[in-house]
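Researcher: Go.
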Amino acid sequence: MSIYSQITANKRKTFLITALFIAFISFVAYIFGQTQGDGFSYLGTALIVSGFLTLGSYYFGDKVILKISGARPADKKRDFNFFTVTENLCIGAGLSKPKLYVIEDSAPNAFATGRDPSHAVVCATSGLLNKLERSELEGVIAHELSHIKNYDIRLMAVVAILVGMTAYLADIFNRSLWWGLYIINPFKGKEFGAWFAGLFNTHPPVEERVKILRSI
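Model: Structure:
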């Protein structure tokens, strides 16, 4: 698998997740409509809401994630290594420099988000920046930049917003099953669960990573 096929796969997954989300919202709206005697009574509203949520996750997903994380914009003097390491690696990778943010947290961690390489963000915790040597920080930032170049960030941003909302709605629907249609969960199939979870996986299992590397 080449980097170009990986980018194509991530774009395809993003489209598929978006389509599944809209279909799910429409299905839930139809079920609720059925309880009111007209299955299509809420369908128009559901399509509008799911459309807005989809556009919102695409254009503002990174801002929502940063807000929830309590991240602050990185300061060039205060976070000198973070800035210069990212600038140097971006020049070598042929990428635009992403916006940089810092979360005040002693645990070492980092992530990238955004919708494409031109609208990307790399966020690191203060713990990571304080504990790592410059060469170690280069490895972490290079990893995050690879997510940007592969369009993993678009997939992850869309998943974070849409799947979070889907899980919330699914919980409401699942609780309602106690009062009607089913005596067991109709979505319990393990094979389906594994396939569905795999759609969101930008860090596949080690065995899968080795398989991909050998195919390059």
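Model: The mean pLDDT is 79.
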